[in-house]
Automatic annotation (TrEMBL), chain A:
This is Thiazole synthase. Catalyzes the rearrangement of 1-deoxy-D-xylulose 5-phosphate (DXP) to produce the thiazole phosphate moiety of thiamine. Sulfur is provided by the thiocarboxylate moiety of the carrier protein ThiS. In vitro, sulfur can be provided by H(2)S. Belongs to the ThiG family. It comes from the Bacteria. 1-deoxy-D-xylulose 5-phosphate binds at G158, A185, G186, N207, T208. It comes from Acetobacter cerevisiae. One of its GO terms (biological process) is thiamine diphosphate biosynthetic process. It is an enzyme of class 2 (transferase). The active site is at K97.
UniProtKB/TrEMBL annotation, chain B:
Pfam families: ThiS. CDD domains: Ubl_ThiS (cd00565). InterPro entries: Beta-grasp_dom_sf (IPR012675), Mopterin_synth/thiamin_S_b (IPR016155), Thi_S (IPR010035), ThiS/MoaD-like (IPR003749). The lineage of its organism: Bacteria, Pseudomonadati, Pseudomonadota, Alphaproteobacteria, Acetobacterales. This is Sulfur carrier protein ThiS. Transmembrane segments: none annotated.
Length: 258, 65
């Protein structure tokens, strides 16, 4: 069953980041090819002369895809909360992808700061999409402070390694069957995205895998099909794995030729 | 009065955050502001009085993952 994200059913289980593309035109082409349910966006310092932010805003408006602002690069609760407030005003949405980064090599979340920031923001009316790990206890805490969506990592941001801990992701899915779950970070190729959907995840968030592909728009289209394939496969109820072979061709009636 | 905007020092005559935004040429831009690490919403800019050495952050939409 398709789950809603804070009451909104997305048009696609693909969430697409807008960073690192070679040019705005290539970003535009990639978004059109991916047909994502949301695009993620951010905030950076603006120069009065260049007005780069205005040009990007115009592009986002033209694309007409709902936006999910992030707090990327924030390492403290205060930074993340202040950034979320600024994003709410600029983008006109109370959705926020909450990142509180705890470690530089892996960019893994500071889950203690994450829970605290999530509590402050949900109390203030934000609809928080927390970038977290697959840790069940942290997930419980995030839900307890008001999050209604969880976004565990597949692998470190930008690594392209796919789903590093399938067991952990499967456990999270089984533990919270009614919570919308999104694999965020680490997906490198469309098969990783399909795998996440096959595991029962409700969406995937991808950026580097598309932006850093040789042909971003072609890769974007590949991801569009991959998430649809994964979603259909999940709905079709996949067969159970077995350790031993079982013949698929009926043995009964086989000619005795030995 | 000297104000630090996005880590750059500016000598300005503005006395409020709203006036500073106009003086620096951001008028009409889709931006959000913070002073000394705290968010200042649009309705509060006109009544936010600057002090010498205040640290202002001015941000705008940007690509993100």
């Amino acid at each position: 069953m398709t789950k809603s994200f804070y009451g909104t059913v997305l048009s696609s289980p693909l969430m697409l980041g807008t960073a690192q593309y070679p040019s705005p035109d290539i970003l535009r082409d990639a978004v059109k090819a991916a047909q994502p349910g949301v695009v993620t966006v951010s905030l950076r310092r603006e120069s009065a002369g260049e007005r780069a932010g205005q040009a990007f805003w115009d592009l986002i408006q033209e694309l007409g895809v709902p936006v999910l602002p992030n707090t990327a690069g924030c390492h403290t609760v205060k930074e993340a909360v202040t950034t979320a407030h600024m994003a709410r005003e600029v983008f006109g949405t109370d959705w926020v992808k909450l990142e509180v980064i705890g470690e530089l090599d892996t960019l893994q979340p500071d889950v203690f700061g994450l829970v605290e920031a999530a509590r402050i923001l949900t109390d203030d009316g934000f609809k928080v999409f927390p970038y977290t790990t697959e840790d069940l206890v942290v997930a419980e805490r995030l839900l307890a402070v008001g999050c209604e969506v969880l976004m565990p990592w597949g692998a470190p941001i930008g690594s392209g390694k796919g789903l590093n801990n399938v067991f952990g992701l499967r456990a999270l899915r089984a533990h919270f069957p009614d919570v919308p779950l999104v694999v965020d970070a680490g997906i490198g190729v469309p098969s990783h995205a399909a795998q996440a959907l096959e595991l029962g995840y409700d969406a995937v968030l991808i950026n580097t895998a598309v932006a850093k592909a040789g042909e971003p728009a072609v890769m974007a289209e590949a991801f569009r099909f991959a998430v649809q394939a994964g979603l259909l496969a999940r709905q079709a109820d996949p067969m159970e794995e077995r350790d031993m072979a079982v013949p698929s061709t009926p043995v009964v009636g086989k000619a005795m030729l030995a | 009065m000297q104000i630090v905007v996005n880590d750059e020092v500016h000598e300005v005559s503005a006395r409020t955050l709203a006036a500073l935004i106009d003086e620096l040429g951001y008028g009409g831009a889709r931006i959000a502001t913070a002073m000394d690490g705290s968010f200042v919403p649009v309705p509060y800019r006109a009544r936010t009085v600057l002090r010498d050495g205040a640290r202002i952050e001015i941000v705008a939409p940007m690509q993100g993952g």
